[in-house]
Amino acid sequence: MRVNAYHFRDTWMLSAPVRAVFDAVTDVAAYPRWWPDVREVSRVDDDTAQLVCRAVLPYVLVVRMRRAEQDPHRGRMRVHLSGDLEGVLAAVVLGRPGGARLEITQRVVAVKPLLRTLSPLARPAFRANHALMMRRGRRGLQDHLGTAGGW
Asked: Could you give the domains of the chain?
Protein backbone atom coordinates (compact mmCIF):
# COMPACT_ATOMS: atom_id res chain seq x y z
CA MET A 1 0.00 0.00 0.00
CA ARG A 2 1.29 3.47 -0.87
CA VAL A 3 2.14 5.63 2.11
CA ASN A 4 -0.44 8.24 1.02
CA ALA A 5 -3.23 5.65 0.57
CA TYR A 6 -5.76 5.24 3.36
CA HIS A 7 -8.51 2.74 4.13
CA PHE A 8 -11.03 3.78 6.76
CA ARG A 9 -13.94 1.81 8.20
CA ASP A 10 -16.36 3.49 10.57
CA THR A 11 -19.58 2.29 12.16
CA TRP A 12 -22.12 4.73 13.55
CA MET A 13 -24.83 3.34 15.82
CA LEU A 14 -27.72 5.79 15.71
CA SER A 15 -30.99 5.91 17.60
CA ALA A 16 -33.04 6.89 14.58
CA PRO A 17 -35.03 5.13 11.85
CA VAL A 18 -33.08 3.70 8.93
CA ARG A 19 -34.81 5.93 6.37
CA ALA A 20 -34.14 9.09 8.40
CA VAL A 21 -30.43 8.20 8.58
CA PHE A 22 -30.29 7.39 4.86
CA ASP A 23 -32.05 10.64 3.94
CA ALA A 24 -29.70 12.68 6.13
CA VAL A 25 -26.48 11.17 4.80
CA THR A 26 -27.57 11.49 1.18
CA ASP A 27 -28.53 15.17 1.68
CA VAL A 28 -24.96 16.38 1.26
CA ALA A 29 -25.99 20.03 1.01
CA ALA A 30 -27.18 19.89 4.64
CA TYR A 31 -23.91 18.52 6.08
CA PRO A 32 -22.67 21.91 7.37
CA ARG A 33 -25.82 22.15 9.52
CA TRP A 34 -24.90 19.08 11.55
CA TRP A 35 -21.29 18.12 10.79
CA PRO A 36 -18.96 20.73 12.31
CA ASP A 37 -15.95 19.72 10.19
CA VAL A 38 -17.79 20.12 6.87
CA ARG A 39 -17.43 23.87 6.52
CA GLU A 40 -19.03 24.38 3.12
CA VAL A 41 -20.87 22.45 0.41
CA SER A 42 -21.55 23.71 -3.09
CA ARG A 43 -23.50 21.95 -5.80
CA VAL A 44 -21.58 21.29 -9.00
CA ASP A 45 -24.35 19.41 -10.84
CA ASP A 46 -27.22 17.01 -10.04
CA ASP A 47 -24.80 14.25 -9.02
CA THR A 48 -21.78 16.19 -7.77
CA ALA A 49 -21.05 18.38 -4.77
CA GLN A 50 -17.85 20.01 -3.59
CA LEU A 51 -17.10 19.92 0.13
CA VAL A 52 -14.65 22.02 2.10
CA CYS A 53 -13.60 20.17 5.26
CA ARG A 54 -11.37 20.98 8.19
CA ALA A 55 -11.08 19.09 11.47
CA VAL A 56 -8.35 19.82 14.02
CA LEU A 57 -5.13 19.81 12.01
CA PRO A 58 -4.34 23.10 10.24
CA TYR A 59 -5.24 22.15 6.68
CA VAL A 60 -8.37 22.26 4.57
CA LEU A 61 -9.51 19.49 2.25
CA VAL A 62 -11.51 20.30 -0.86
CA VAL A 63 -13.18 17.18 -2.17
CA ARG A 64 -15.72 16.57 -4.92
CA MET A 65 -18.23 13.81 -4.29
CA ARG A 66 -19.88 12.35 -7.39
CA ARG A 67 -22.84 10.06 -6.76
CA ALA A 68 -22.33 6.56 -8.16
CA GLU A 69 -25.09 4.72 -6.27
CA GLN A 70 -28.02 5.78 -4.11
CA ASP A 71 -30.48 3.00 -3.31
CA PRO A 72 -32.86 3.84 -0.45
CA HIS A 73 -34.49 0.40 -0.54
CA ARG A 74 -31.20 -1.36 0.17
CA GLY A 75 -29.80 1.52 2.24
CA ARG A 76 -26.73 1.69 0.01
CA MET A 77 -24.83 4.67 -1.28
CA ARG A 78 -21.47 5.16 -2.98
CA VAL A 79 -19.61 8.23 -4.22
CA HIS A 80 -16.42 8.79 -6.16
CA LEU A 81 -14.07 11.30 -4.60
CA SER A 82 -11.73 13.68 -6.42
CA GLY A 83 -9.74 16.74 -5.49
CA ASP A 84 -7.46 16.67 -2.44
CA LEU A 85 -8.50 13.04 -1.89
CA GLU A 86 -9.21 10.57 -4.67
CA GLY A 87 -11.05 7.31 -4.24
CA VAL A 88 -14.38 5.88 -3.17
CA LEU A 89 -16.65 6.26 -0.18
CA ALA A 90 -19.38 3.66 0.28
CA ALA A 91 -21.96 3.35 3.02
CA VAL A 92 -24.87 1.16 4.00
CA VAL A 93 -27.60 1.85 6.55
CA LEU A 94 -28.92 -1.23 8.29
CA GLY A 95 -31.71 -1.65 10.81
CA ARG A 96 -30.85 -2.66 14.36
CA PRO A 97 -32.87 -2.80 17.59
CA GLY A 98 -33.52 0.79 18.62
CA GLY A 99 -32.32 2.43 15.45
CA ALA A 100 -29.85 2.16 12.62
CA ARG A 101 -26.28 1.11 11.98
CA LEU A 102 -24.37 3.17 9.41
CA GLU A 103 -21.28 1.40 8.03
CA ILE A 104 -18.89 3.68 6.13
CA THR A 105 -15.89 2.52 4.11
CA GLN A 106 -13.43 4.88 2.46
CA ARG A 107 -10.50 3.99 0.23
CA VAL A 108 -8.65 7.15 -0.66
CA VAL A 109 -5.31 8.44 -1.83
CA ALA A 110 -4.18 11.80 -0.50
CA VAL A 111 -3.16 13.84 -3.53
CA LYS A 112 -3.01 17.29 -1.92
CA PRO A 113 0.73 18.10 -2.06
CA LEU A 114 0.98 18.89 1.67
CA LEU A 115 -0.64 15.58 2.65
CA ARG A 116 1.34 13.59 0.10
CA THR A 117 4.60 15.10 1.34
CA LEU A 118 3.83 14.67 5.04
CA SER A 119 2.17 11.23 4.87
CA PRO A 120 5.34 9.25 5.67
CA LEU A 121 5.72 11.07 9.01
CA ALA A 122 2.25 12.39 9.80
CA ARG A 123 0.18 9.32 8.88
CA PRO A 124 -0.82 8.63 12.53
CA ALA A 125 -1.88 12.27 12.98
CA PHE A 126 -3.89 12.19 9.74
CA ARG A 127 -5.65 9.01 10.87
CA ALA A 128 -6.41 10.55 14.29
CA ASN A 129 -7.74 13.70 12.60
CA HIS A 130 -10.01 11.54 10.45
CA ALA A 131 -11.25 9.61 13.51
CA LEU A 132 -12.08 12.85 15.32
CA MET A 133 -13.91 14.20 12.28
CA MET A 134 -15.98 11.03 12.02
CA ARG A 135 -16.75 11.01 15.75
CA ARG A 136 -17.99 14.61 15.56
CA GLY A 137 -19.99 13.74 12.45
CA ARG A 138 -21.74 10.91 14.24
CA ARG A 139 -22.57 13.10 17.22
CA GLY A 140 -23.80 15.88 14.94
CA LEU A 141 -25.99 13.52 12.96
CA GLN A 142 -27.44 12.03 16.15
CA ASP A 143 -28.33 15.54 17.37
CA HIS A 144 -29.65 16.53 13.93
CA LEU A 145 -31.97 13.54 13.91
CA GLY A 146 -33.27 14.61 17.33
CA THR A 147 -32.33 11.48 19.20
CA ALA A 148 -30.16 11.21 22.29
CA GLY A 149 -28.75 7.69 22.02
CA GLY A 150 -26.13 6.08 19.84
CA TRP A 151 -22.47 5.38 20.56
From this structure: 5-143 (3.30.530.20)
